[in-house]
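I hope you will forgive my troubling you with a question about protein structure. The full record is reproduced below for your convenience:

——
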Amino acid sequence: MSENTPSQDSAAAAPESASTTPADAPEQDLAAQLAELQAKNAELADLYLRAQADVQNARRRADEEVAKSRKFAIEGFAESLLPVIDSLEAGLAIPNATIEQIREGSEATLRQLKSALERNKVVEVNPAAGTKFDPTQHQAISMVPAEQEANTVVTVLQKGYLIAERVLRPALVTVAAPK
């Protein structure tokens, strides 16, 4: 029997401590996977925060645009009415206008006003006599006996107006009563 010397024992032990045991390998793999998943989690968290910031910025910009649109929506309409104001002021500036001049100026100004309304999608509702009564665009003031079909317009007391196909004011009408 031979005895191992201390130098032989340390030489034999050195290779075992320098190499990993099979039991240590799964722990190192798990540690590497954990580190990889933590890095991926940090990356996704950063992307999430950036996306949230982008959404908040987009929402803020959209809210600002809506506020500007509401504030300046009337701008185009007001701009189309300025020539009407100019015409009225010019007519009133004439000191000794004749009735004919006043009438001509009023008719020209009315044409300008109607044109401005049409450019801004304000449409007149003026049903002809005999037109079927439409409760979505007409308001009946009274029913009168007439020589026409029942529930048809007899006269228009006040024109109505639509804006982009929505009733701004219904036409006030009298309607033929049933016989």
Summary: Residues 10-18 have pLDDT under 50 and may be disordered.
